[in-house]
Design brief:
The complex is a heterodimer of chains A (203) and B (129). Chain A is built from nine helices and no strands. Chain A is mostly helical and 203 residues long. In chain A, helix 2 (48-66) crosses helix 3, helix 6 (148-159) runs antiparallel to helix 7 and helix 7 (164-171) crosses helix 8. Classes of the chains: A mainly alpha (203), B mainly alpha (129).
């Protein structure tokens, strides 16, 4: 009986320690991805508050539903949730715009462009700041001109460094599709950004 | 390595660098909100608290707003040429006011279906994260 109690106590302690380890690990993961996820969301929805909400939702959902999954799955799951939330916001915004138009209202999305208000890259050289800021703005504009799936593939592969397999998991498609989307995205972006990015690539 | 490949690699490095720099430039206010958001998310790791009552109000609010908008759509018919738009707007209301995330409804089933077909990822262990 005493032994059984000790064993039960040890098991409880182990479970608690396991939960603690899991909590520490997932916090470290979230800390690592939160600013990058925010930048990706901002790039897509162009609204600071909505971007912050999207990231918060994605973090909450990951923790609530997938914290107990192996940590190797967190990254593709997190980005999948993030992309889904971005699509939801974009779809709702599109519908809201149609409803407002129907009622004769006007959209005020262009009143303030959060991208223009966002701070540029940090650098001591103002000229470099301007050049880099312009290049990033141009890159964002070009990304918005891509089909959504190409944009997702580029963001996940290039910005986030996910491998093809992880990107396929995040995008819910085959690895072949990821390669195709990514390759087309790079090709199109290079066409669109020749003067902004490639000119500075040699620096 | 071909010259074309090198140019492409340089381009990809440059875009990655631009993104990293823009992340580094995120202001303190946004960073503070992200930290709060993370802490809020981690609260869910604790045993379930009594947050049910708050969520129970959400569908009620959604239904109320949907009802008001549906009534407005019905009592404010526009020109006959807009009947198609009116019908589609009614359908759109479900999307606009839906509290459940549209894409996420199928998320779990699709993801784990996909995962089952990916032995490499399944056996990847816990090293990433």
């Amino acid at each position: 009986m005493g032994l059984a109690l000790v064993t039960a106590h040890e098991e409880t302690s182990l479970e608690r320690e396991g939960a603690l380890d899991s909590g520490v690990a997932i916090e470290a993961f979230l800390r690592e991805v939160e600013t990058r996820a925010f930048r990706i969301a901002l790039l897509n929805v162009r609204d600071r508050d909505e971007a912050l909400d999207i990231v918060q939702d994605a973090m909450i959902r990951l923790v609530r539903r997938y914290a107990q999954r192996p940590s190797a799955e967190w990254r593709p799951l997190f980005y999948r949730i993030l992309q889904n939330r971005i699509r939801d916001v974009q779809r709702r915004r599109s519908v809201r715009s149609r409803v407002l138009t129907f009622f004769g209202g006007v959209e005020s999305e262009d009143e303030q462009d959060p991208l223009l208000a966002a701070p540029g890259p940090q650098s001591d050289d103002p000229l470099a700041q301007v050049a880099a800021g312009d290049a990033m703005r141009a890159l964002e504009q070009a990304l918005l001109m891509l089909p959504a799936r190409q944009r997702e593939a580029f963001v996940l592969r290039n910005f986030e460094g996910l491998d093809v397999l992880q990107t396929a998991a995040a995008m819910n498609c085959t690895e072949g599709s990821v390669k195709t989307h990514y390759s087309r995205a790079v090709h199109r972006l290079r066409e669109l950004l020749k003067e902004h990015v490639e000119e500075h690539s040699d620096e | 390595m071909s010259e074309q490949k090198m140019v492409r690699d340089r381009f990809e490095q440059r875009t990655k660098q631009l993104f990293d720099e823009s992340v580094a430039g995120i202001d303190a206010a946004a960073r503070a909100r992200l930290v709060r958001a993370r802490h809020r998310a981690l609260e869910d790791l604790a045993p379930a608290k009594s947050r049910g009552w708050r969520w129970s109000l959400v569908p009620a609010g959604g239904v109320a707003v949907a009802t008001v908008l549906a009534v407005l759509l019905v009592v404010h018919p526009r020109a006959p040429t807009e009947t198609g738009l009116q019908a589609s707007s009614l359908n759109d209301l479900e999307i606009l006011l839906g509290e459940e995330d549209l894409q996420m409804l199928e998320e779990d089933i699709e993801f784990y279906g996909w995962l089952e077909q990916q032995p490499e990822l399944k056996n990847a262990g816990d090293s990433v994260g």
